[in-house]
Amino acid sequence: MNYFTDLEGDAKTLNRCFRILKFNPSDGYANDKIASIHYAKARSVWEIYQAESKEVFEKKKPLTWESVERWEKLIAEFRSELDKTEFYLENIQKGDRHEMNKKTILSSLKENRKIDPTIDKQFEEYRKYLTAMGHSKK
């Protein structure tokens, strides 16, 4: 049994890219691939948050402490994935053939970061509402 050959998908790609970066930390291909994987994960987590919160806003599900706590964890994971994305993009050197993708994703990251303060305020409003309605944390 071989660890590397047993890996699949993103895990295999990440493993290969991390090995490349051991010898060349500024390798554009490896940094771009790792950043892209983290960015895709961030977008996926954001979509989960959006879908779950939409059900509450459309009154298909009630707002609960559990949902607020879950969303806070999702947003923390979203932010962490954005930080990782940015870290690896910053390692792509000027003039590298992956620089255009770097610029595109960094521009998108800038827009995503504008949402952050709004979300924190929203969570505070959820907590106030739940408390005012007499819902207690379990």
List the helices and strands and how they pair.
Layout: H1 3-6, H2 9-23, H3 28-57, H4 65-90, H5 99-132
Which sheet architecture does the biggest sheet show?
Answer: none
Beta-strand fraction estimate: under 5%
Query: Segments where pLDDT lies below 50 for 5+ residues?
Result: none
Shape: elongated
Spatial separation of the terminal alpha carbons: 45 Å
Structural class: mainly alpha
What are the secondary-structure elements, in order, as H or E? HHHHH
- For the secondary structure, the number of strands is 0
C-alpha-based Rg, rounded = 19 Å
The total count of helices amounts to 5
Mean pLDDT: 89
Proportion in helices: over 70%
Give an overview of the whole structure:
The relative contact order is 0.13. The protein has 5 helices and no strands. The mean pLDDT is 89. The chain is an all-alpha fold.
Quick overview of this protein structure:
This protein has 5 helices and no strands. It is mainly alpha-helical.
Which descriptors would you attach to this protein?
5 helices, 0% strand, 138 residues, elongated, mainly alpha
